[in-house]
Task: structure prediction
Amino acid sequence: MLHLILYCPEIPQNTGNIGRTAAITSARLHLIEPLGYELSEKHLKRSGMDYWEDLDLCVHKDWKHFLNSPKAPKRLWLFTTKAERIYWNASFQDEDGLVFGNEGHGAPDWLHDEIGEENRITIPHSNNSLRSLNLATSVGIASYEALRQMQ
Result:
């Protein structure tokens, strides 16, 4: 199983779209609080459509509770613009977790340190004057590469 982990996501539409991706790919979606919205918000449900009912969702009080959860993945990969290693050079395995920071600030420095440089990866882009892709787009790209490798 693939695990998708959103650290303190802020925009419900992104989480809804990511939830839809998780449901379609049979991935487990982990949301690390605090969230920038209520889980009952209509934008979240609308972008996730009726897929939300089929979603394997875990909501965690904080990072520590996530790590101690019996449903936590075995290994973590942090997707960040602050990495040199490109995601297609990573070797994804069953029970890996793909970690994504929030839309406004990314992942905090302590999370970069905790996951470690060897497990920080990036999605390349050719226009270096632009910061990054949309969160839901990044999760989609990363998810399907991990699933491709795991087959």
In short: The chain has one domain: 3-150. The domain at 3-150 is CATH 3.40.1280.10 (Alpha/beta knot). The longest strand covers residues 3-7. The mean pLDDT is 92.
